[in-house]
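Suppose a colleague, Dr. K., hands you the sequence of a protein chain of 933 amino acids and asks what its three-dimensional shape might be. Before reaching for any lab equipment, you can write down a predicted structure in token form. Begin with the sequence itself:
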Amino acid sequence: MIIINKFNFRSEFKRILAGVICFSIVVMGVPMEIKASIKEPTLLITDYKPIISESVDASGFKHPGIGLTKDILENMRTEVLTQKEPWYSYYKEMILSPAASKEIKSNNENSKDPTKPEITTFDSKQVQSKFITDALNSYTQAILYYITGDEVYRKNALHIIRIWSQMDPTKYKYYTDACIHSGIPLNRMVTAAEILRYTSCKTESLKWTDKDTTDFTNNLINPVIDTLQHDNNHFMNQHLYPLLGAMAGYIFTDNRERYNEGVEWFTINKTAKDQGQNGSIKQLFRLVDTDIVTGEKLEEPRVQHAEMGRDQAHGSGDLTNTAIISRLLLAQGTKVDPVDGTASTKADAVTSYELLDNRILKAANYFWQYMLGYDTLWTPLAAHTDINGNPTVIYRIFSDSYRGRMNTANFWDTYYYYKYTLGIDMEKEAPYFAEAFSKRLPTNYYYQGKAISAWDNVDGGGDFWLYIPKAAEAEGTKYLPKEQPNSALIQIDERYAAFDNNSTTKKEGDISYVEVKATEKGSKIVPLSLSYPDRTKPCIVGLKFRTNGTAKLEMSKEINSTPYTTLTLPDTNDEWKYITYDMGTDKVSFSQLDKDYSLLYFNIVGAGTTVDIDCLDVQASKHLTVPTFKAGNSDLNLFTYVGSAASITLDFSASVSSTNAAVTYQIDNKPKFANLNKNTGEFSWIPTEAGTYSFIVSASDGTTVTTKNVKVEVSNDRKSAVDLVIEPYNRNESYESSTLYEYKKVYEETIKLVDNNSTDDEFYSSLSKLKNAVDKLKLLTPLLKDGSINYPEIVTSSTGSYLPTLVDDNPNSYPVVPIGSDLYYTFDFGANFRVSATAFDIQSRMGFGEFSAGTAIFGSNDGTTWIRLTDGTTKYSEEKQRLNVKEEYKNTQFRYFKMEMVDPQRSIDPNINFNLYEPSEFKIFGERYEVAE
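The predicted structure, expressed as tokens, is then:
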């Protein structure tokens, strides 16, 4: 027996999966980890090495050949056993999967007789769930058997396969989305069977038999393919998922006719009824030369990944699926005609990767250009067409859903093939793909606070490392992703993109960080693959940084969009500090940043300040203490005048909850003659010159710093001070009466103090009240840029926290299911208000015109009795549509409005569940009124 060297479970991820409890403590606010005593596991390799019996059947298929050939398997095993990188690290990560346990059993075995299946009918998601789990388990166990020679793994894999080989072929029935979710598990289980079928073993009962082949073929492979998968008209990657399962089955069963058909379906799919949704290489990774909306020709055609108009989760799945199917073709030595994509042995035949001028490579590079945060061009294209080829659904823009999320992109063997087999200079020909490769995630990682294994991904791809060619030995650990130490810390330097020459990665001792030179226009970087824990409650995030001056750090969803958070960074005198912010939806709405968006654009503004950024702690509330100003952390805006005898005296003292840590204070950009006590936070100043003075006060407990922006506007006299305070008030606007009454009352009180003999203390007290009254003024009918009512802050709605998505002009943001499962949303303007509407604008979720088609609008004053306000309903369209209010109701005031799908439209996709209501925009045009209580 060979014992491979022990390895340390360094990451929290490994400790979690090993069942080891870890403890953490906080010392002076710095998160530290006490490493538990861990019994390090050993990787046991028996003295038996399974032998592969390679063969070529009568149909010309090579076996084993479902992606993993004899050469690939032998190379992988050799690299693992000799502990060569990167294979060895990936192997160590794989064996942490629950699927690698020796205690594995079939999820479909009968509790009374474990040799029999519990369920023999394949017609539901219940069975599908069992199939998915057992497929991964059998695949993992078969791989481990071949590597270790331990027959326990072979026994487990064979047991699972023999259970599923007893399914009743007459009891298969298609169910919703069966084509999507049966492909990966069939591919995995068939690959496992292929390994067992062509590898040796010592125990007679564990040998693969002809009966195994017959039962597995007739009772699982063929009925799954024929009932759930064999169709070339599915939507985009819904075409590829069943195909990658079916193609594995064709190889195992020596079905050359179906295999060749599948090859063409993969490459061109000429006979697909709808070429807009065709999921072939040619149509999915489309060469676009014309704007489908305007008819305008492009100066230079470009390859666009069509399903990136839907979302990036599906987009990454497309590329993973093409990698999986390409593995099958490469294993069989299959090449295709360079034009029609049919299997070919002619001299000009090419591999699927070379097809259409390396189309897959260009699509992958295009995908990563967008996913890494770079500006990427998009030309509208058809996502559905009618029988005449006319577009019925158009993807007009990129979908920003899942942008930046790297964890579902598992097509790295594609990179290795282009680089090592085809010898392509990836940095030159596919620079964004190359950049993504260098910044990819480890195979065990954290997402939204949870430990996740790429190997276990239900959508496949985590096994890419099995296909790494021997030539990659030269890389060693050079491109091997670093382990993530725990679920809280995100190292910015490991994954970010830069948009100018003002940032660079540096290392100082054990700390790697990003150094950014702040500029007046802003220096921009974007951390990648970022996620937060639960944002439905306060989600405190800590940023570790240091500076040699002051700067502002603006955070936004897009490179030029309005920041949703701005941090004022004090001068830390080159000492590392944390500063915190809240990503809870009370502070940053889903409209500003949805939970699956994984880019964080930083714009760092300053006058040449050096800002070093180390990491983010997305669970800072567990690790950091945060100083809080007793007067509140909000910005402070004060007004005074020259000649006042009163000193501006402010208390900037702060406290730190649950600790007695001392707090020290600092002022940056201090006005002349101003004083701040660094131990107490007391501030005093008598201005001597008119002007606007801005400075920063910070409080620190030694680890975490909290800043407060202060602006003091100094006028020449009392009257001008009052004028500055009331500048936001517009006499031509209508305000809510209670706020307007308070403003006018305080204004009259304050203006009386301008010219009389009142003291400065009396005047400033009244001026402060006036400033507060101005800040609390509320417009009666607040408007958006398009003239519609800006209602999210003045209504309650059944959309919940997703309400802002209905007015953000983003067709890709919308209230999610099951919120709209009743096919309507209500909006309540409150007991004291009514609205008379003239029109409503409605737009469906991008790419799904049916999800708001058939909508009508209703009004009510009791929330029970509803009056239909619009004659027509919205049509099947992604365009913004206007529904005008009937003439007889245009001056009628209502407290409640309801948008309801009263006439659901047929979906182009027959698998769509109509119990969905997902409008992306709902604009109300009209006027708001107050009513007597």
